[in-house]
Model the fold of this input.
Amino acid sequence: MALPRRVADLAVYEMALSVAALGSMGRAATEHGVSQAAVSARVRALEEALGLTLFERSPQGTRLTPAGSLVADWARGAVDAAWAMEEGVAALQAEHTGRLRVAASLTVAEYLLPRWLVALRTELPETSVSLTTRNSTEVADDVRTGAADLGFVEGPEIGDDLDSQVMGHDELVLVMAPTHRWARRRAVIPAQLAATPLVTRETGSGTREFLERALETAGAGPTAAPVLELASTTAIKAAVADGVAPAVLSSLAVAGELEAGTLVTLPVRGVALGRRLTAIWRRGRAPDGAAAALLARARAAHEHRTRPARATWRTGAGHNLSL
Done:
């Protein structure tokens, strides 16, 4: 049976994902080594084939429409699967090549692992790495069943059947559109945040679980049902920028939007939103070879990142927030 014609060409979806991530046809063209006109033409052809407008184009850049966010969500899994298959086939073909299977939650996979893997590639150029991006609960399941040699999660709980090591720290921040009614406030308190329907990840997400537990610890009471659940950070940021509702996301994930002013952040008083990013593996099976090397690269990157340096972001009330 032939593939459906709308999904037969994954390369154009990968190109569209680059436009979404980089916010520019020109930057996506540089990423793929083609002309801006070629990227624009391929994206336009994709929109015509789907019968949907995927991007809003403006002098300030290019961003996903709500329909585009959903298509990007679906496409990302297919593109990731294609790359995972490529890595797997390459590992089978190479007689003396090592193979490392990594599963990671979204924040780590998108904002930290690429640099760690580049460093690993320099150290062990013959090692083939397959990366699966899932939520924290699913990553832990992959490690338990042996589907992944090593996992990276953001969730607050590590099962007794897993060994772990903290690889770094992260801060969750409350973000919203500059036009949101909260944008002129100085801060919100945990009870207000808990009572407000947010745009969130799906159940099982480390970010969502951490926020719910942090608010519970702060005595904020039960959290309101989400106004919208989405499976990717990119889709959440697009919905927030469109004014759907606020969201609580990793500071790593929103740094670019805060700098550009498409999102603003607001302090949450009285709740600790710092969290640990943790590597996990099966209990009693200490990582060795490529897995141990990747852990070493991750630790080195974290030590470099946590040297004295301060990033100051503009909040909705016109104040500065330093992290």
In short: The chain is about 45% helix and 20% strand. Residues 307-323 have pLDDT under 50 and may be disordered. The chain has three domains: 5-74, 95-168+275-305, 169-273+311-322. Residues 169-273+311-322 form a domain with the D-Maltodextrin-Binding Protein; domain 2 fold (CATH 3.40.190.290).
